[in-house]
């Protein structure tokens, strides 16, 4: 599978953060992008659409990102979830990875870092 063939779910309560991430993904020729603004919606869309990669904020309304990761991993233990948050405390990072996230990116997500994370996930899915 190539990057351009991926379906990506972006979950962040910040429209600006979603837009920035979407623009970076478009630069990688990724066009199948789903967007939601809270953790519960992320879980619901994940279960319905089965995206290849989820980019998930930690601090969000309705359900936080760490709880959302737990529910997604419970539904699909092979899910590729990357936390993208400005709340980059070590405790949050450990908790997200322990819950099943594959990686963690500090906001604002830099293009090269995003590209590297996606490339690694794609390689590991083969």
What does this structure look like?
With 126 residues, the chain is of the alpha/beta class. Helices cover 48% and strands 18% of the residues. It contains 5 helices and 5 strands, in the order βαβαβαβαβα. The chain has a 5-stranded parallel beta sheet with strand order 2-1-3-4-5, sandwiched between helices. β1, α1 and β2 form a beta-alpha-beta unit. The radius of gyration is 13 Å and the shape is globular. The mean pLDDT is 90.
Strand and helix layout:
Elements: E1 7-11, H1 15-27, E2 32-36, H2 39-49, E3 53-56, H3 65-75, E4 81-85, H4 90-99, E5 103-106, H5 111-125
Parallel strand pairs: 1-2, 1-3, 3-4, 4-5
- Number of helices in the DSSP assignment: 5
Computed CA radius of gyration, to the nearest angstrom: 13 Å
What is the assigned CATH homologous superfamily? Response regulator
Uncertain ranges: none
Tally of separate domains: 1
Fill in the CATH topology.
Answer: Rossmann fold
Give the SSE string. Answer: EHEHEHEHEH
Percent of residues in beta strands: 15-25%
Short description:
The chain is an alpha/beta fold and about 130 residues long. Helices cover about 50% and strands about 20% of the residues. It has five helices and five strands.
How would you describe this structure in keywords?
globular, Rossmann fold, 5-stranded parallel beta sheet, 5 helices, alpha/beta, 126 residues
């Amino acid at each position: 599978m190539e990057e351009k063939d991926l379906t990506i779910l972006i979950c962040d309560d910040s429209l600006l953060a979603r837009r920035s991430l979407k623009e970076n993904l478009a630069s990688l020729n990724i066009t199948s992008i789903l967007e939601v603004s809270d953790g519960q919606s992320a879980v619901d869309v994940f279960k319905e659409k089965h995206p290849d990669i989820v980019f998930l904020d930690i601090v969000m309304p309705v359900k936080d990102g760490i709880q959302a990761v737990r529910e997604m991993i419970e539904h699909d233990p092979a899910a590729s979830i990357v936390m993208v948050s400005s709340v980059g405390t070590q405790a949050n990072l450990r908790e997200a990875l322990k819950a099943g996230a594959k990686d963690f990116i500090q906001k604002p997500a830099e293009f090269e870092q995003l590209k590297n994370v996606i490339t690694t996930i794609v390689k590991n899915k083969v």
